[in-house]
């Protein structure tokens, strides 16, 4: 079995011009993932359950695990010296690593250190999401906000870690999507899912139906379509919603399906954050042969304007994303 470290190096050799910086950066993410994984696995007995009582820039009360994960990834990325700055769900502003090495690094990282925070205390799978870009500011200069506000189609790599019944790291550098499973006895990630692809069609829909009455008419129509009885089209589809984007995404990636976090009357831009939730998942989904949209256009074409901006999110099997987009177009409310 090939390890994640070996695979990264092997793939790097496919690019003679590669300098090894991205490989080293991915190594730092792998290290932090192991540290966070060890803590999550003993969440019930470690002083890591519960909230900090502090509200983050999202207006959400931070969980202790949000901060723990944020700290571990930040420390690992800064220590590795391949990153000139990071942006995180748990940090109001971007953080510049402006020591000598940092300044001369060409990558910025955007991350959701702990995804699915509402599931930490109830032993349901959670994750970490990361997105990597080359900076646009010159090497040696201070990192700037524009280095982070790049459209998703400029990502050089993206991925997630899922802390579930097993722990996996799934990533892409634009050459397919590859999954690695952690052997807990050794703390080593081994290649277990090479070239992951999503089926064109699926029979699973993932959405918080508790918001049904607040959804746009087109989304309501699509949910009714999913629930209609029609064996010729394998309907009704199955409703599955874990409440952790990473976990719902991972299941749908393997089995086919669609994850939706639409806009609602109370949250016209939806809930999920473009830069460190939707863009990285969109890059992975497109690399796996699926689609990711805000209900109208490709997520990865959106030009970001704010670090923590939110967008409606529809992501999954091609035909299912096409269907919901069509229904939203057909039932646009004036
Ligand atoms: O509880 P809701 O409104 O359905 O929201 C669940 C969604 O919010 C999230 O928890 C947001 O992510 P964070 O936990 O990182 O804030 C997603 O993982 C999940 O899909
Ligand atoms: Mg999240
Ligand atoms: Mg989070």
TrEMBL record:
Mg(2+) 2 binds at residues 112, 115, 277. Mg(2+) 1 binds at residues 89, 112, 114. Residues 2-194 form the Fructose-1-6-bisphosphatase class I N-terminal domain. Its EC number is 3.1.3.11. Its main location: cytoplasm. Residues 198-328 form the Fructose-1-6-bisphosphatase class 1 C-terminal domain. Keywords: Carbohydrate metabolism, Cytoplasm, Hydrolase, Magnesium, Metal-binding. Substrate binds at residues 115-118, 208, 241, 271. CDD domains: FBPase (cd00354). Binds 2 magnesium ions per subunit. It is found in: Cytoplasm. Pfam families: FBPase, FBPase_C. Pathway: Carbohydrate biosynthesis; Calvin cycle. The keyword Thylakoid does not apply. Its cofactor is Mg(2+). Homotetramer. Belongs to the FBPase class 1 family. HAMAP family: FBPase_class1. This is Fructose-1,6-bisphosphatase class 1.
């Amino acid at each position: 079995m090939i390890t994640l470290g070996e695979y990264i190096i092997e793939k790097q050799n496919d690019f003679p011009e590669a300098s090894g910086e991205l490989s080293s950066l991915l190594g730092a993410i792998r290290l932090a993932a192991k540290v966070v994984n060890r803590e999550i696995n003993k969440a019930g007995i470690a002083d890591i359950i519960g909230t900090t009582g502090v509200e983050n820039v999202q207006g959400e009360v931070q969980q202790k695990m949000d901060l723990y994960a944020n700290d571990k990834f930040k420390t690992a990325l800064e220590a590795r010296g391949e990153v000139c700055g990071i942006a995180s769900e748990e940090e109001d502003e971007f953080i510049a690593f402006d020591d000598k090495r940092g300044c001369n690094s060409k990558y910025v990282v955007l991350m959701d250190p702990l995804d699915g925070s509402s599931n930490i205390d109830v032993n349901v799978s959670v994750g970490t999401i990361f997105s990597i870009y080359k900076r646009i500011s010159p090497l040696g200069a201070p990192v700037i906000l524009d280095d982070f506000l790049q459209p998703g189609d400029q990502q050089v790599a993206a991925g997630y870690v899922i802390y579930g019944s097993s722990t996996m790291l799934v990533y892409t550098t634009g050459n397919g999507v590859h999954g690695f499973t952690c052997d807990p006895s050794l703390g080593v990630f081994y290649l277990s899912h090479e070239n992951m692809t999503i089926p064109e069609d699926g029979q699973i829909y993932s959405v918080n139906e508790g918001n049904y009455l607040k959804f746009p008419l087109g989304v309501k129509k699509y949910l009714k379509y999913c629930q209609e009885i029609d064996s010729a089209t394998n309907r009704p589809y199955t409703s599955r919603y874990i409440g952790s984007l990473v976990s719902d995404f991972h299941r749908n990636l393997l089995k086919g399906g669609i994850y939706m976090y639409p806009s609602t009357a109370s949250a016209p831009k939806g809930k999920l954050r473009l830069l460190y939730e939707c863009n990285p998942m969109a890059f992975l989904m497109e690399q796996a042969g699926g689609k990711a949209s805000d209900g109208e256009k490709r997520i990865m074409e959106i030009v970001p304007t704010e670090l923590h901006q939110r967008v409606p999110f529809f992501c999954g099997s091609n035909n299912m994303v096409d269907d919901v987009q069509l229904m939203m177009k057909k039932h646009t409310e004036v």
